Amino acid sequence: MKILTIETSCDETAAAVTEGTEILSSVKWTQEVHAKWGGVVPSLAKRAHEERIEEIIHRAMLNVQCSMFNIDAIAVTVGPGLAIALEVGIKWAKKLAAEWHKPLIGVNHIEGHILSALTPEVVFPCMALVISGGHTQIIRVDEIGKYKILAQSLDDDIGEALDKGARMLGLPYPGGPALEKLAAAGDAKKYKLPLPMAGKEGKAFSYSGLKTAFYRLISKTQDSRLNADLAACYQAMVFKHLTRTVRLVLTNTSPSNPSPNLGEGSQAVQDLLVGGGVAANQNLKKQLEELGRELGINVRYPANLMLCTDNAAMIGVAAGFKAARGEFDDLDKIDRLPRWRVDEII
C-alpha cells in the first residue's frame, strides 16, 4: 500500500511517500524562525507550516514521480505535539483524502519514533527509548501497536534540558547539537554536578534540578560563556542520569534493590529500539551501546540519522502497519490529540 504522509507536530514540516517499511521519498524543512527566541514558538510554528506544507508535499511526490492516482492512503500525525501545529497537517491530510477519496490514517508521533529503529531481526517483546525535545520515555513493545510506558520525565525532557543548558552557555538554538560539539573539546570531570534522582523507584527522568544546579555553577564560574569543560560536565550528567534509569528499567531493579529481577520488562528482552532527535548524539550512542553489551541487549538505531529527528517517513511506516491491520480513521472525526499517550487506545 503506497501511503502519502504528513508530519507537522512541532517545528519540522515534512512529507513522505512509503510502501510498507520502504521509504520511497522523504522531504522535510526545519523552521529556523525559532532560533532568535531560543525555543519553539507555537504561533510561529503554525504560520511556518502553513507557508511551506504545500511545497513540501509536492516535492515528496515529485521525488518519486508519483501522482495522487498512485496513492492508496493518506496518513498524518495527530499527536502528541503542539496542537496548532498538528492542526495544519491534519487539515491538509483531510483535504487530500476528501478530494481524492483516499482512506485516512491518524498516527501517534511516538509510535513513529519507536518503529523508526525496527528491523526484521527484532524479537518481541522488546524495549524502546524515545528521547527528544518533548519526550523522554522507556516503552515496552509487546508487538507492533501494543505498547506500555514504563518510565517518563517528571519535568523537563532530555532534549529540552540540553537546549536550555546550551543557552546558558551562549550557544545558538537548537542547542543540543551545538552543546555536543562544544563538549567534545571539554573535560567532563572538571566540575561537579548532582546526579538527578527521580521517582519512588528511581525509574523516572527529571532534569529540572540539574538545570538549576548548572545555572548556579555557571554563575560562580569565570569565563562561563562557550566553556567546553562546563558543556562536557553538563552533557555527561544529563546522559548519566538517562543511562542509569534505562539500566534500572531494563534490569527491573531499584536503587534499594540492585539485584536483577527477571520479571516483566526486564533483561528477558533482547532488543532496545532508540529513536528521537537526541539519539543522533554520538557520545550518547556509544554509552547506550556499551550498556547494551553489558546487559546482552541489542541496541538498535534508525538506519539513517535523518530518521532520528522528526520526519514523515517514520510516520508513514507506522501508518503502513496500521493499514495492514485495517485501522483507518473517520474523515469527520479525526482531530488533534496533543497529549496522546502511545499506550492509550483512542
Topology (elements, then pairings):
Elements: E1 2-7, E2 12-19, E3 22-30, H1 42-62, E4 73-79, H2 83-100, E5 104-108, H3 109-115, E6 126-131, E7 136-143, E8 146-152, H4 158-168, H5 175-183, H6 208-220, H7 228-251, E9 271-275, H8 282-295, E10 298-300, H9 312-324
Parallel strand pairs: 1-4, 4-5, 6-9, 9-10
Antiparallel strand pairs: 1-2, 2-3, 6-7, 7-8
Helix pairs in contact: 1-2, 3-9, 4-5, 4-6, 4-7, 5-7, 7-8
Task: Describe the structure in brief.
By secondary structure, this protein is of the alpha/beta class. The chain folds into 2 domains: 2-113 and 306-324, Nucleotidyltransferase, domain 5; 122-301, 2-Layer Sandwich (Nucleotidyltransferase, domain 5), CATH 3.30.420.
Overview of the structural elements:
The chain is α/β, with parallel strands linked by helices and 346 residues long. The protein folds into two domains: 131 residues, ATPase, nucleotide binding domain (Nucleotidyltransferase, domain 5, 2-Layer Sandwich); 180 residues, 2-Layer Sandwich (Nucleotidyltransferase, domain 5). The chain is built from nine helices and ten strands. The protein has a five-stranded mixed β-sheet with strand order 3-2-1-4-5, with helices on both faces. A five-stranded mixed β-sheet has the order 8-7-6-9-10. β4, α2 and β5 form a beta-alpha-beta unit. The two termini are 23 Å apart.
